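User: Predict the complex.
Assistant: Input components as received:
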Amino acid sequence: MAAPALSIEGLSYAYGRGAFALKDVALTVEAGSFTALLGPNGAGKTTLFALITRLFESPGGTIRIGGADLRREPTRALARMGVVFQQPTLDLDLTVRQNLLYFAALHGIPRRTAQARALGSLEQLGMAERIDETVRTLNGGHRRRVELARALLHEPALLVLDEPTVGLDVPARRAIVEHVHSLCRERGIAVLWATHLIDEIAPDDRVVVIHKGQIRASGPVADVNRDTGADTLTDSFNRLIAKEAA
Amino acid sequence: MTTAAHYARALGGIVGREVLRFVHQRERFLSALVRPLLWLFVFAAGFRAALGIAITPPYETYIPYEVYIVPGLVGMVQLFNGMQSSLSMVYDREMGSMRMLLVSPLPRWFLLTAKLLAGTAVSILQVYAFLAIAWLYGVQAPPLGYVTVLPALVVTGLMLGALGMLLSSAIRQLENFAGVMNFVIFPTFFLSTALYPLWKMQESSELLYTICLVNPFSQAVELIRHALYLSLNAQALAWTVLALAAFLGGAIFGYNPARGFLARRGAGAE
């Protein structure tokens, strides 16, 4: 059987000598699945993303991307992953094309291939005609689409997104959510999507609930609801969070 | 498998992006030019009579003060650029595009070195623009000096960029950086041979003389000064390369995901 797109085992992390920001985290994202990482603000989602994207490393636990250990084979592991960060990461003064080609160069994609893929990727997001506009002239929703197109340029098997809809209006949010779901269905890309917004999660998605640095529940939405005895994911989530507060 | 072509493409991409950004930020280019030109046109003119310069190598005759300070101002252009590109790294990191760079599938030492080369390329463009204006103003080095100074500029630009990069890895926020400008740039510039020769400092204070002597920026300025006048100052070259190695090593440590400053204090996000 093929290795999961992302597997994390026994991952803990503390900032300095402070309390644990993450404690013994384990999760798996299978190929072609949409997994939502659901947690309130401050739950540890951003720390987990910093570790998955190797901004820093944890001395304990392992992170494997498509079977490649992030600590032992960082370049192999990173090459298989596309990332959309929570903060905007585009050069505002450069055009959409220049931004995408810069990213492609970092991934060693030959220029001609990069040009073709950039155009194809933007087309799918309805952004092809904006390719020569400077990013500064685009609105927030369009900038996010460009970041999504960029994250797909090197054809990753895993796409990780850290609260990618922050600051977007409702239609822009819906467009991004739907597009990423379609990537799972149509292209078999595995997605890890961090959010604190339950309405971004579809009934047949998988969900991992994180709170205070620990995983509280994980599995298909229906299983999580069954285990908590709730009818909706909102109820499940509230129960899982409340249980800790009590 | 990361191939040589991948490295070459990434290096081209990083340098190309920096040059594109530089072209788009005309104010940055203008202020990079205005700063040394003010020193040359105003400061040097005012002090021309007050500071006579004796014959010191590499000069073979008495020289006016303007001629003396041009290499120091070239160093200043690179010092500011080195700090500015690290300012942009602090900014980048907050804005996330530094994270974009660090998440690419290449060794981190390579990414940081490529970023350093890109900053150095931009600083060299600024230096030649400044030297061209100085030439028109009448400060003219031997024509071949403008060629021989190039390798010196590469080494000094890398060294000063690496210093900035080391600082950026240790600085948490943009506000702190303003302090670093005051506490790093000005002392580095004034405690050097950029504005006055060492022997002149020695006449005033032995302590200040010693500080000027060991300041890597002094060595960088002397390397540039000699190269511009067709001579190689081996000692200055050795010190500059040593400082480059130390600063770059520190910066690579600072950005190391497992041990560096980032790990110790976190992303600052949560």
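Residues 90-155 of chain A form a domain with the ABC transporter ATPase like fold fold (CATH 1.20.1580.10).
Let me know if you want any component modeled separately.
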